[in-house]
Amino acid sequence: MSTLVGPELAAAFGRDGFVVVPDLLTEDELARFGPAVDAAVADRQRHDHRSLSQKSRYEQSFQQCMNLWEDHPGVLPLTFHSRISQAAAELLGVGAVRLWHDQALYKEAGGRETDPHQDHPYWPIAEPDQLTAWIPFDGSTRDAGAMAYLPGSHRVGLDRFVDIFGAFDSEPEDILSHPDVASIAPVLVEVPRGSVAFHHGLTVHLARPNTSDRVRRVHTAIYFRDGCTRSSGFPHPSVERNQIEVGEVIAGDVTPIAWPRPDGTFPGVPLATPA
Ligand SMILES: O=C(O)CCC(=O)C(=O)O
User: Fold this and answer.
1) How many whole angstroms from 260 Cα to the centroid of ligand 1?
2) Where is average pLDDT lowest: 54-58, 220-224, 249-253?
3) Does the Cβ of 63 fall within 6 Å of ligand 1?
4) What are the structural domains, with CATH classification, of the chain?
5) At a CB cut-off of 8 Å and minimum separation 6, what does 169 contact?
6) pLDDT, tens digit, for every residue of 160-193?
7) Could you tell me if the CB of 62 is within 6 A of ligand 1?
8) Ligand 1: which atom is nearest the Cα of residue 132?
9) pTM (predicted TM-score)
């Protein structure tokens, strides 16, 4: 099978902990998947009539809708898109990846910044061999919630939980000031339409506020190396739902193999109880 990600991009990901892989989605796919995720987000949010100002600090950063592949069939082929999952495996340098979960992250017009954090501390995975594919349907721009990354921050040994989920009166710790990364300047990345930005689970990242008048429409899929094990009892639906015990390999219908798969096939919807 031919490779998708050349040696230069793979080296850039290893060095910086993020990279943009160009042209992974065609115009036809963007025209199909964007509305599919829009509809899924609208469906999941249908009972939420709050204005932005009525939401929590965290919710003002984005509307977060997890595991849309399970109940919205139009989203399934995006979350398990063969080129995106293959690129994920190649960037991690592994033979197979599983899905941890997908999530839409729709930053509303006027939405605040996404506070700086690393992802791995939120996940009970022992080995930090995972990344996020960040898929902006309209591309991303500085004024409409583009992401910024601290290059090389995945390699400094920092693996720090930052509580970005709290209420307005609780400012999260500013990880950008942590001595391990304080000397690293964030790099803002604008992603062209059809391209996908990938970041490692230990890369410190943030997103700019959305000062535009339209929603920043982003779908994400988190993939991890097949063979990773559960690190702790810290609860997370991706392991709880398949009753994965601490120390066990994370494998089940909630976290199916995303790549490689037999051509044109997708995993079945989990029998495990939804979160
Ligand atoms: O899209 C955003 O605003 C933040 C995304 C993020 O933190 C992530 O995908 O890990």
Assistant:
1) 25
2) 54-58
3) no
4) 7-46+60-255 (2.60.120.620)
5) none
6) 999 998 766 678 999 999 999 999 999 999 999 9
7) yes
8) 9
9) 0.97
